Amino acid sequence: MNNSDIILLSHGGGGRRTQQLIRDLILKHLGNPILDRLDDGACLDVPEREIVFTTDSYVVSPIFFPGGDIGKLAVCGTINDLAMQGAAPRYLSLALILEEGLALADLERVIQSVARIVRETGVAVVTGDTKVVERGKGNGVFINTAGIGVRHPGVDTHVANARSGDVIIITGTLGDHGIAVMSRREGLNLETGVVSDAAPLWGMIEPLLREIPKVHSLRDPTRGGVAAALGDIATAAGVGIRIHERALQIRPGVQGACKLLGLDVLNVANEGKALVICTPAQAEQALRILRTHPLGRQAAVIGEVTAEPVGMVLLETALGGERIVETPLGEDLPRIC
Amino acid sequence: MNNSDIILLSHGGGGRRTQQLIRDLILKHLGNPILDRLDDGACLDVPEREIVFTTDSYVVSPIFFPGGDIGKLAVCGTINDLAMQGAAPRYLSLALILEEGLALADLERVIQSVARIVRETGVAVVTGDTKVVERGKGNGVFINTAGIGVRHPGVDTHVANARSGDVIIITGTLGDHGIAVMSRREGLNLETGVVSDAAPLWGMIEPLLREIPKVHSLRDPTRGGVAAALGDIATAAGVGIRIHERALQIRPGVQGACKLLGLDVLNVANEGKALVICTPAQAEQALRILRTHPLGRQAAVIGEVTAEPVGMVLLETALGGERIVETPLGEDLPRIC
Lengths: 337, 337
Description:
The structure is a homodimer of 337-residue chains. By secondary structure, chain A is α+β, with helices and mostly antiparallel strands. In chain A, 30% of the residues lie in helices and 24% in strands.
């Protein structure tokens, strides 16, 4: 590739080459009246008082994987963090750390993915930043997206709100994102047929909260998987959690890859699933609402909240046994998001 | 160093080791009732309608330099982006991309710098994220800070508001940050005595906007220096800009280093200076207010806005000549912020 096809250090220098990159590539796909002003900050009119503010950096490797790429992941991840707080996603920031030598065509693919989700969900990228680091000091693209959402009135979906007796719903299959990424890792190249589930969840969550604003807790089981998410809930709410292996839905490709790689699917990241904690009385209605959305068609109850043992997650195995589900130390699945 | 003293990949896995790092290092220094909840997003009560949202990633190399470090730089930079929009900084996010092998002691120093500025300015870090990449895929620490501020009523400091006849004030000396960082670059190690000017500017800007809410434009001349900042103003406002070399204040150490490195000080980054564009009638009062603040003691008029030539910045040299000040392509000063 010649120099006009790749990212150069000067693209990050804040001079004319930075301006050119922003105009030719970022504004071309993401332009809107606020972003087009190219201010160092975006002035927003937010009449609602209760806003939610979130941030995530994405360092997934490789940056392209079955079912998505780092751009789709970043936007979906931030939209979902807002959705899990019961907030309608409104505004995103997009900050890029590019590695010298990155193909501009790859960067454009990533930005197009961002643009697709932005169009689909109606959120707007309103401010951003571009930096460039030398070859060998980065990894193609790192993305940070921060987000601002507006909380639905009367909604409080904090994980500490889970109560003994509540049921635990998950909106679909387990482990698709993590396995899709792992399958493309250098030196691995597994043919699993698994694609990432990365998807923006607000379209599914919004009707749920409109109909059942008193849902107790929402959490997306991303990095650390269902195990870490349920562990957080058990700790924050001071409750126990019991899930049933028979109720978990796992694609054969995910199951096979987990076996091969020695992974517990409960630790594998999801990027388009939600855990919904509600009362048994709300469960049927919740399932009905979730299942009307394409992303929630396989929504199912997978367990319940118990008074004891506090802070612990237990799995009732398919054979009727029981084991403790531990929050992993963090060794198994680096750079999955 | 042994494994308990450095960042491991598992610190980014989202499991127990990530939790431990956040509790022992982040919450220890930055804890507050909102951050302590450790939600994926922060719920904020913002009664004002007009908010400003900004983001910046910091990749400065080296991460420690005379007068500061990447933590101080990140927080000041985001506070200043808000201040330049006429917004009181309220809430920050802090997202870390750590390189495997980073000394925990270095990370703690960076977080302590963040904490110091946070305490000094009264902003709060309310949400964050921690990722880890393998050795050789990052550079110690990259930081993204996004920020939310509340716009002062009646204030509009957009760069497009500059008008022919306006005066251009800068609040102090030129080029200190860029030269402080360059002086510590690998293989260079210049003894310039120059320290970075990185500082939070809202304390100086707030009284200015209270007394003179109709200031036309504010811009901090960071990456790309005064040349890029004034170039932006000239382009956005459709005006010309003329500055006077005699009026520029440059420390001898900065002057010497620029000569040695072949840099134009107008292209060198500042991280604690503001350009203030106002009418001549406001200028005296503006200077008086700025000079009462320790960061603005050397505030001075350095030029004026002209009708022509549109989009161009001219420098009247000390010898009475004139030259065009070009926005650099971006080659000279990589990774300065």
